[in-house]
Amino acid sequence: MNRRTFLKLASACALTLGDDAMPTPARSAPAPASAKTASLTLTAAQRANAVRNAARYAWARAEQEAALHAAQPWLDRSDDTLWNLIASQELPRS
74 and 25 in contact (C-beta within 8 Å)? Predict the structure, then answer.
């Protein structure tokens, strides 16, 4: 899965589920004080509209379910596993 697809799926999950419903893997250390607490790409109104659409329209519900299904393998991974997928800064860049 490429980065663009991952980010689209993560955004879709955040839109449809919100922070309260997202499963959170156990953390090995407390989050830093500067940790993100809200979406930086979607407003609360956009998220509310997506939730309403999923409740109202079959096509929106299908999109929501597809996004959740595609994101599940990433949600099942621990924070440490996800962190280890990131390449080191020592890797030469183009």
Answer: no
pTM for the whole structure: 0.53
Nearest 5 degrees, angle CA 42-CA 13-CA 49?
50
Handedness of CA 72, 8, 31, 21 (dihedral sign): negative
Tell me how far apart the alpha carbons of residues 64 and 21 are, in angstroms, rounded to a whole number: 14
Cβ atoms of 12 and 53 closer than 8 Å: no
Measured distance CA(75)–CA(24) in Å, rounded? 8
Q: Is the separation of the CB atoms in 59 and 27 below 8 Å?
A: no
42 Cβ contact list (under 8 Å, min separation 6): 11, 14, 15
| 48-59 confidence digits (pLDDT tens) | 999 999 999 999
Closest CA to 19 of 6, 2, 30, 35: 35
Task: Show the tokens assigned to 1.
Answer: 């899965």
